[in-house]
Task: structure prediction
Amino acid sequence: MNEIQSRPQFLRKPPWLKVRPPYTGKCRHIKSVLAELQLHTVCQEAACPNIAECFQSGTATFLILGNICTRNCLYCNIAHDIPAPVDEKEINRLIDAAQKMNLNYMVITSVTRDDLPDGGAHFFAICIRELRKALPACKIEVLIPDFQGNQAALEKVIAAKPDVINHNMEVVEPLFPQLRPQGNYNLSLQLLSRVAKTAVISKSGFMIGFGEKHKDILQLIDDLASVSCARLTIGQYQQPTLNHWPVAKYYHPDEFAELKEIAYQKGVQYVEAGPLVRSSYHAAKARLGGQEVRGT
Result:
């Protein structure tokens, strides 16, 4: 039975999290393109701390299927309500943006759409295929929801052959009932296991700082290694607003380095771990394994 934990109290941010990189002309250009084409990015919607760095490098994580989520996870800053109908023309604007931004690596994610029969899997597949036609040299990573365990939906995405399929665990198992009440820990592991059995690179990520125990973090790494998850990101949770779950602990960069080494020892092939790391951080480097591939 999962252990229910109480909400932590307010903590002040440590110096290593107080980073304010400057916004350059490249950042403003990308924001202008996104606004012009009426596209959403998880960088903006989820208030990602790396937005300036990523925009400066000419990358962004596109948010498809609108910007309203059907779920209400207590750590997430994306709005939740009844989503609008699927905009079939969104794919055309996505291609236009990729061309204007001259991208060679794209990350595409979505809000969770439990209101759709396949959770939006068909639209993911269309995006992948159409982007392949328009930008054949561009690598594509998708960050997908759990599709409520719908295997046929997952197969649609796999069949479209993205380069990487990412599905985030987000939190340790004991905190799922409180922080991800509409999710399912084992279902998410099963999804990653299915992806790992294909030619597509499997990837996942989670955050720490919610009040989890060290043994729970180690168990999550063990569980991801057991389903042959090839790529992993570990980052610090930062409370988006006062209405979200408070931060229980700010982990020191040295602690992230230790977790990174543990994940490598367990067999994960490539790991990004640090206070400001998010699931799409250095995504292109992770796909290639960087210079740090230690798994088989």
Remarks:
- DSSP finds eleven helices and eight strands in the chain.
- The longest helix spans residues 121-134.
- Strands lie at 40-41, 61-64, 105-110, 139-143, 164-166, 201-208, 231-236, 270-274.
- Residues 291-296 have pLDDT under 50 and may be disordered.
